[in-house]
Design a protein that fits this description.
Elements: H1 3-34, H2 38-51, H3 60-79, H4 85-105, H5 122-125, H6 128-150
Helix pairs in contact: 1-3, 1-6, 2-3, 4-6
Length: 152
């Protein structure tokens, strides 16, 4: 095994706990929305539209279907290690910044004048760890992606 191959293998092994923990979480979340009833769809859609008004152009069931598919696709990208870390990290970072945006912009999620969460905000505040994991994967994977695509 060459030194470069050994470094690549070590980097991939180091990424697996990050990828699998968040991938399993997103897989469960996506699967839980596959058969969402109308009430849950309206709840999730209404919550998202309050922060991101452009989402009002989607019907509640359509929105939840797309959200479920996005979570499942992202879970697959994280759980299958052949997807480059930079690609999986970019997707995870973008997705989780959206959920952190919900936390920051929705009234009642944070204590007044603070980033500290309320009981209602905890389920969204914890998504900050996904931003960190996404950025870590992105930072870890960019040098390899850059070498493969731009230095031939």
């Amino acid at each position: 095994m060459t030194p470069l191959t050994a470094r690549f293998a070590a980097r991939q092994a180091r990424q697996l706990p990050l990828r699998w923990s968040v991938g399993a979480f997103l897989l469960n979340s996506g699967l839980s929305k596959v058969d969402a009833d109308e009430e849950l769809a309206e709840q999730l859609h209404g919550f998202a539209v309050g922060t991101y008004p452009f989402l009002s152009s989607f019907e509640p069931k359509q929105f939840v279907s797309l959200l479920s598919k996005a979570e499942l696709a992202l879970a697959a990208a994280l759980l299958v290690p052949v997807v480059p870390a930079a690609v999986a990290g970019a997707g995870l970072t973008a997705f989780s910044l959206g959920t952190v945006g919900l936390y920051l912009r929705t009234p009642g999620m944070r204590q007044e004048g603070s980033l500290k969460w309320t009981d209602q905000g905890l389920p969204l505040a914890k998504d900050a760890w996904m931003v960190g994991i996404g950025l870590s994967l992105l930072a870890d994977g960019l040098p390899g992606l850059w070498r493969r695509c731009c230095h031939r």
